[in-house]
Amino acid sequence: MQNFRLASSLNDKIYFHLDSLPGVVTKLNKIMAFFFGVFLGVSIGIGLIIAFARYGKIRSTRRTDLARTIAAFARLTVQDSRKILPRQFYPPWVVFSQRQKLSWLNVQLEKIWPSVDEAASELIRASVEPILEQYTPAILSSMKFDKLTLGTVAPQFTGISIVESESGADGITMEMDMQWDGNPNIVLNINTKLGVSLPVQVKDIGFTGVFRLIFKPLVAQFPCFGAVAYSLREKRYLDFTLKVIGGDLSSIPGVSDAIEETIRNAVEDSITWPVRNIVPILPGDYSGLELKPVGTLDVKLVQAKELTNKDIIGKSDPFAVLFIRPLPDKTKRSKTIDNQLNPIWNENFEFIVEDVSTQHLTIKVFDDEGVQGAELIGCAQLALKELEPGKVKDVWLKLVKDLLVQRDNKYRGQVQLELLYNPYGTDSTFKNPFDANFSLTSLEKALKSPNSETEALAPEKAGQKKREVIVRGVLSVLVISGENLPPVDFNGKADPFVVLTMKKSETKSKTRVANETLNPVWNQTFDFVVEDALHEMLIIEVWDHDTFRKGWSTTIGETSKSQTTIWIERTVVC
């Protein structure tokens, strides 16, 4: 093997062996690869660190910009959003019209209508049938549902709104305009006093009105409200046809009108506002949603002038009908003034007010035709919210032909009323500058000394005065349930209902009938105007519906020998 000698400028001599050259090259390659890998790894790491840092900064900037954008949108009003995005640029899937919303709701209602029909039919039967019995006219002995289905045509909603003024902080009040031209199958089994049984079909129902739904109270538990109260807020139009199955209803005089009046009274008393039907969703006490009187309205019907003459010979014989709720027991009628177009009545009436914000006083003036039906001269209406509590308001109301459709501008005369609204619990706060004793209650006035405004009467004289005084107010009675009633029927059951009677005024009310039970549950409230609370007595009787024989009677707080119990809750408002 040859040796090569290389000489440098320093005359150093280095000898290389040819067989050692490949190993040196391999080591140099490894060293270079190591340093290149280190350089590449450091470069990539630094690049990643820089990239992540820059991405974090960009992300933070984007989040800040997004927060600013959201805050800016939160401050936008509806008018601002419409300026930014005009209606012509809305995407096709956006529902922007009330009509389209209602169309969607009506489509969904049609899908679930068979189920709603089944549930609503049972609810209507249970709630309306007792009221039909309550308003059954004298010519009929009974009126019950034989068949009741709402048909296949679902109602149509034509408007939805939220009543912010009456929703409050713990509830939501919704009103829905509804129209229904249905095909229900409603058959009434009617028995007359003459012993004739008539199966009467109610058909061709046309209805337009406003339903009110109250979701209250709002709770922190699904579905976020405790109960739903529903009511017919406004009845704009209601029409139907009565037909005897296999016969002619007109063959019995007066029956058709009596049945129609009974049905309308039942609708008014069972579902029309301010009546509220409560459906509990979650367990709780929802007595605050129940209908309760809030005050009284004293009305003095003074006179009318320039009434339209309805008689061909002579002049009209006018009389007036006044009501807040058009029910027979809540309607007042004045005396008839014969042959007079400027009658003077000077009659006083009192009404119970249940919702001063929505109720109206309605007056209708008729011409008395004797045996024939009275002819309407004109009518007028006054909103109770226009009255100031404790202050007499003297008004002249112009009479019109129709309160809903006022297209007839013919002058029909005017009627004068003096009105005084008295909310419960505030009578003593009203001041009269002409009477220092006006703010006193009737009991305080009676017990007050006649010689001194501050000196009290002797105990025996005070007791005598207290017996003589008349304390007026409203007694609210809630009939809750009964327990351990004695069996009256042959099947060991009973069909009980409760009759409440004010002994002095002879005013009566009764609950619905609870079929085939000895432990009935009623949960019904009744209000009685008490003219003399110190001498009045409430009598409670339980009757069996089938036999009309008295099962037992007792005063409040007592029980019969069979340990029968009736749960009653009383509230006196003076």
From TrEMBL:
It is found in: Membrane. Keywords: Calcium, Lipid transport, Lipid-binding, Membrane, Metal-binding, Repeat, Transmembrane, Transmembrane helix, Transport. One of its GO terms (biological process) is lipid transport. Residues 276-397, 449-574 form the C2 domain. The keyword Calcium applies. It is a single-pass membrane protein. Residues 98-282 form the SMP-LTD domain. The chain crosses the membrane at residues 31-53. Pfam families: C2, SMP_LBD. One of its GO terms (molecular function) is lipid binding. Belongs to the synaptotagmin family. This is C2 domain-containing protein. It comes from Gossypium tomentosum.
